[in-house]
Amino acid sequence: MSDEPAALARISLDAVRHNTQLLRRRAGRADVMAVVKADGYGHGAVPVARAALAAGATWLGTATIDEALRLRGAGIGAPVLSWLNGPGSAWQTAIAHDVDLSAGDTALLAEIGRAAIRAGTTARVHLKVDTGLGRGGCPLAQWPALVDAALKGEADGTLRVAGLWSHLGSADDPHDPRCLAQLDLFRAAAEFAGRAGVRGAVRHLANSAATLTLPEACFDLVRPGIALYGLWPEEPLTAADLRPAMSLRARLTQVKRVPAGQGVSYGHAYRTARDSRLALVPLGYADGVPRAAGNTAPVWVSGTWHRIAGRVCMDQFVLDLGDTPAAPGDEVVLFGAGLDGEPTLAEWVRRLGTIANEIVVGIGARVTRVYTGQP
């Protein structure tokens, strides 16, 4: 018992493999890019990447160059796209390590081209068009200029247009009319690039939701993120047989008897209604338990659900167990797959009014990751 961590996130790599295989089937002829940004959505980028590749993913996706380089440092040689980098980024290092890069304007494209000359090799770029999200990417009016600049880079040997891509704005519902309009605009932008002379570039638009429910958005490559980890708050995707990969657990550090009316945690936002047992859980908002979970989120102890009592603190929170038997060292489950009756992350999402992504990526470094299953 003494050598066991006080708090751990148990990650099922078998679940990651299962989800990857499901996404591959739904993607049809398209390849799968497993998105492992934000340290694999808090699950661990390297083990998740290996599990996804073993299950049939052929690409990996990261936000930053540093994330991509960590994959390369772990010996992972699969194609990697890094898409969220600004002026002055480590382009030369990325190019030297065979990392694909995204460009959404001509200035950034030129900077990547100069870095390719210094690296002595050709940079692989994915041209991003803004089809309506209004975030990153090239405005449609400037798309011809970006395509022209990329083709000039191909002609002088500094660039290779490896991809054409965009991102959906209503990510939870690919059947939203705005997403369907984006689909049409992306198709038109890709066709323009083809007429202009771009050859062999993979087209990718579909996120998790579109991969699972909108086949016409899959094109050559899909980029599932949260679904890779078996998570999604929407009912249509719950029915897709996704398997949650993470369960968050801890061991009680203290259990004590208190009288009725005992105030609990900061501000006494909770008081016991009767004589009761209070149990201390060594997880707080520094570990990724949202402060908003106080008096709201369920936790599983001794086979029953108990709501967090009072405010979540930086390092800990309290449970009012009533008469439920418990002792220091007993395991509690904040969320899991629900197979043993424990709360699921979907239940936390519902009660907190947030999304699964926000919770799992917030699980902090003090929480030990323990992996089960084969990568």
Automatic annotation (TrEMBL):
It holds the Pfam family Ala_racemase_C. One of its GO terms (molecular function) is pyridoxal phosphate binding. Substrate binds at R135, M314. It catalyses: L-alanine = D-alanine. The modification N6-(pyridoxal phosphate)lysine is found at K37. SUPFAM superfamilies: Alanine racemase C-terminal domain-like (SSF50621), PLP-binding barrel (SSF51419). InterPro entries: Ala_racemase, Ala_racemase/Decarboxylase_C, Ala_racemase_C, Ala_racemase_N, Ala_racemase_pyridoxalP-BS, PLP-binding_barrel. GO terms for biological process: D-alanine biosynthetic process; peptidoglycan biosynthetic process. Its cofactor is pyridoxal 5'-phosphate. PROSITE patterns: ALANINE_RACEMASE. Its EC number is 5.1.1.1. Pathway: Amino-acid biosynthesis; D-alanine biosynthesis; D-alanine from L-alanine: step 1/1. GO terms for cellular component: cytosol. CDD domains: PLPDE_III_AR. Residues 245-372 form the Alanine racemase C-terminal domain. It comes from the Bacteria. The active site is at K37 (proton acceptor), Y266 (proton acceptor). Keywords: Isomerase, Pyridoxal phosphate. HAMAP family: Ala_racemase. Catalyzes the interconversion of L-alanine and D-alanine. May also act on other amino acids. Belongs to the alanine racemase family. This is Alanine racemase. It comes from Streptomyces toyocaensis.
